[in-house]
Specification:
mainly alpha
Length: 100
């Protein structure tokens, strides 16, 4: 059996990669993928700790996180498509479409 610390280490590495992608990169798609990587890191932790404590609570929470990520993907990709069709900007810093 693989120790819990290995799962936590992999999830930490994934979360740091996702956080770096959100903070450093300014392309819509890269930021969007980085957020998805961070959600997957949280899912790894939830499932690993659920397995460690012999509970289904973490796995149920991971299923809810997957459902929320699917909704976020649908809405986020729709916003990105609208922005790209209008040729407003491909950089997150240059976009002011949602401001008043």
């Amino acid at each position: 059996m693989i120790p819990l610390s290995y799962y936590v280490a992999v999830a930490t590495i994934l979360f740091v990669i996702g956080l770096a992608g959100v903070l450093i990169r300014r392309n819509f798609i890269i930021v969007f993928m980085s957020v998805e990587i961070m959600l997957n890191a949280a899912n790894i932790n939830l499932v690993a700790f659920a397995s460690y404590f012999d509970s289904l609570d973490g796995q149920i929470a991971a299923i809810f996180v997957i459902a929320i990520a699917a909704g976020e993907a649908a809405i986020g990709l729709a916003i990105i498509i609208v922005v790209f069709r209008r040729k407003i900007a491909t950089n997150v810093d240059q976009l002011n479409l949602l401001k008043w």
